[in-house]
Amino acid sequence: MFIWETNKKMPNDLHKRLVDTVGMENSHYINYDGSSGVTNATYKNVQDDFFTSYRDEIDTKIEGLVEFYSEVVKEMMLDLGMYNRSRYEFQLWTQRYSDQTTAHWPHDHFSGCEIISFNHIIDPTEKKCFYFLDDNENKIYAGKQDSGHFFAWPPWRVHGADQVTEPNVNRLIVAGNVALLEYYDMDGFKLTCDEPAGGTYVWKQTSLN
Question: pTM for this one?
Answer without folding.
Answer: 0.87
